[in-house]
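Side project, low priority. Logging it here so it doesn't get lost.
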Amino acid sequence: MARPRRQDDTELLAAAMQLFWRNGYSTTGIRELEQGLGLRAPALYHRFGSKEQLFLAALQQYVEQIIGARIKRYLQQQEQPLTGLRAFFDTTYDYVSATQPPLGCLVLNTSLEALSADPAVASELAQAARRVRTAIRTTLRRAQALGQLDQHANVRALTDTLYLGLQGLLVTSKLIRDPALLRRQVDSLFALLPVTAATTEGARP
């Protein structure tokens, strides 16, 4: 009889990431991890060391696979930087529905849990925040270089404003399942950008 295929760490971390993302760290117990990953507790500890280490590895995978992929798709690969930036914001709430509970952002969710005080987790959260802020700032500078954003615009201040708005949007989208309202909030946020008259309609956020 063939031996069952051994799951690799990437598959296990993907399953763990979904559990932590959906339920949070504190309410995801070993029993839930055993059921979700298909491994008994001793095997989990052997593979990952502890629940905390498993979570940290899952969080790192989230930053790479979810946040990293979104940054690449919407902020790095878009020909029109402001259009891509707007899509980056809009796609944080386009999953909202009346029937499916919103997951929000694992990084933001974790920052609200006691585990965020753990030095390794705090470092990962800070790195994720810097990564998003840097991507937003770089996108705004690209728009400025293309003449789509006022040359005298304070890119650092705009980055701060957009980043804070993004965090608020992620929280609001978990509390209010109204895509029209969320879109109006993003409209208001992007209305603060000093786009130039030369910006084409297709390039506007």
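Brief comment: The radius of gyration is 20 Å.
Revisit when time allows.
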